[in-house]
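Many introductory courses stop at the sequence. We go one step further.
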Amino acid sequence: MKKVVVLICFLTSHISHLTSFAQSVYISEKTEISFFSKAPIEDIDAVNKMSTSIITLHNDSIAFKVPITGFVFKDGLMQRHFNSNYMESDKKGYENATLKGKINEKVDFKTDGEYKVTCTGILKMHGVEQPRTFEGVFTVKEGKINLTSKFKVLVADHKIKIPSDKLMNIGKEIEVSVSADYKPYVKP
């Protein structure tokens, strides 16, 4: 009987721990990443709605996974060139861009408001990891959480090669915009 009571206490304490852990995790399955490149001959833009993100409150971490083939262009040929010639998304290790970082400021996700934050972490794209710090804004309203951010990426920083005959078509700097809607993680 004593063993049963100890087992029940053990299970109860671990279930409450798992429940509290789940309450400290927010996921975004509705994450939109877009980019824009200004070039003398033609501007390039694409949108990716297949990205995901997770925030873990107990250690203030944030992570993103962006499938490169998820970027959709207005021009199908441009999309094929982006994937095969520049991002080489069919190569192992190049399939996704990722960010693993830490939110530097405390955000009260239970209180409505706008919270300016910075995130410091590692951006991995085209197989190249770069330490970066990003600025963003969390907007909390009626239990809904949205993150927006805008930043620039130099293609050279991630060893993305632009052929000399395409230098007028593709900018050396890409402006990236992020919008992610988060909700508390609920164990299925």
